[in-house]
Each structure stands twice: as structure tokens, then as C-alpha cells.
Amino acid sequence: MRVEVRVKDGNGRIEERDGVLIVYTTEKRKNNRANIDVIRQLSKYYSVQQASIRIITGLTSPKKVIEIGIESGNSRGA
Description:
By secondary structure, the protein is α+β, with helices and mostly antiparallel strands. Helices cover 18% and strands 36% of the residues.
């Protein structure tokens, strides 16, 4: 899944545009805090454990490819 991160534009909001999820966070990029918040938000959005979400590419970029492991309780069909 393709994800774009917007830092400082808001927090806790996820939108979908043209097949890309846009995740908003106020966490800074420093010390991986923005990535951690993105994983936290996606975990809540898809109702999966944070450990089942991996950033495949884009660890230091706002454009990322995310993998979500399939678990029971996944109501949005990652």
C-alpha cells in the first residue's frame, strides 16, 4: 500500500486520494517519531496490531510503501 506522510499539517487524520493514503502527524521526523506515529495511526485505522505493520520503502521519505499483515479483526481489508 502506498502512503504519504504530511508532517505538521494535523494529527490523527487519514485520507485516501487517488489510491494513496495520506497520514497526518505532528510528530517530528527526528528519532523516527513520525514513522512510529504513522504505524500507530494505521494500526488503529485498520484494527491490527502495530507489530503487523512494516515500512517496506521510504523510511526517511514522506512517500512510503507499507505492508500490513493480515490478522483477525481487520475490518478494512488491508
